Predict the 3D structure of the following.
Amino acid sequence: ETLHWVVGNEPIALSQLKERYYEPNLLAKALGFSKEALRDVKAFKNVALYPSIELTKPEPGDATLGIKLTNRGGGIGKVVVLINGKEMAADARGERITPDAKSAELSIDIKGHPYFIPGKKNQIEVKAYNAEGYLSSRGVVVDYDAPGTAPSEIPALWAIVAGVSDYSGEAIDLRYAAKDARDIATALKLGGSRLFGSDKVKLLTLTTLPPDKLPTKDNLRQAFKELHAARPWDIMVVYLAGHGVAQGDEYYYLTQEARSADLTDPAVRERVAISSGEMVEWIKQSPSTLQVMLLDTCAAGTFEKKLSEKRDISSDQVRALDRMKDRTGFHVLMGSAADRVSYEATQYEQGLLTYALLEGMKGAALREQEFIDVSKLFSHAVDEVPKLAQNIGGIQSPRIAAPKGTSFDIGQLTAEDRQKIPLAQSKPFLLSPMFLNPGEGFDNLRLTALVRKKLRDDSYASGRGGARRLPVVYVDAEQFTGVLLPSGTYSIAGDKVQATLVLVRDQKRLTDLKVEGDAKDPSALAAQIVEGIMGAVENVK
């Protein structure tokens, strides 16, 4: 925080250089501990300073903010105006001011702007960039007493909760995202109703579970439009679960229409994904200035059979979410997994960030044992997710991007309320089984593939809240410590198959079982084997 450069008599903080030089995990990359390459950026020399800023505070009865800019050699770049920490104007210069102008004067009409809280002291902040756009000034701030009577009404809680499990393309389907969204919606409704009143909770739930509205791009766009009715003192919470993809400097949330995570085609991007830039513009249409975003997403990384291999969160993703925080004033908590298998390798049949949030709201992170304080909840999740993940290298530590020194309550939960918050119980992991027919020297009935498919199908149904809940969490991987590994051999005599299975944990044989079936119906035999495995698991847990 105190490290800075001095150019002439002008101190420049590190935060002013974020546009070009912010590099998450910089030390790990420099020392070779990260697989991500360092970006190629220009050296910081021959510094082209941003313009100086002088503000003329709006007088009572005159809702005009005066801005005077003086070129100090680096030109006049974009001028950002924020009200109460939320971007009012991404660039207030208009078209008449050229980057090489010696000076410029702007008059910004702020009359009746929806971000102002009437009868209260509000904060207006202005930042100016140099012409190249990589160096910003410190924010220059003035206070403004907005006309009107201070609100006496209780705030409302507005929440958009979305989770996509069933995509248009089966290859990227997820088990838990939709159910996780429902669980978070339940907790938010309980907490919001207790603190603000049930009539003050506006909850919009979009999942791929009936009868919820589907989380398509159009439906999500419409949900954000409903938030236009929020007031500046209201609270906004946005929770998104599913696939999140980093591409360039943008973060994309895949909507239900997506068939794959390939977003190279701009037309496909526009149709099946919401970029962080789009989300910023949608959010800016809502007057709410108390805002929380929770992202429990799974990247489209290549699956590593060795789940313990550490993979860091994408730097592009971190930069995109940090930029969103700067422009909207959002308190952002982002959890991410490097691939689908890592995302779903949890003993709770739940995204680990979601589990940590629900655990916090159930009592582990409540202020005064009842209030859902944003900072306290975020800190709990950051501390707990790495512990829950244990040896899952593809689960990254959550990242917080939040305005400094601010927090607020988004709910209140009594002991009775907390009992209603759904929190899954831990289950043992089951790894991918292997089968062999020694008489033939290979798996001629393809039982390995059939049993794995049956386990995947049953596991997906269980993870999405199906009627039958499995006693294990199936992980489609081959290397993982402390888990159950089934394997076996089989022999064929005429139409009959006899399979012998063993259940192993950490090279220790726990139990064995025999299953008989029909050689003409390997799929039915695979189902019998899965039933046998589940029964054995119940006995050795």
Q: What stands out?
A: The CA atoms of residues 92 and 141 lie 16 Å apart. The first helix runs from residue 18 to 21. The radius of gyration is 27 Å. Confidence is low (pLDDT under 50) at residues 300-312.
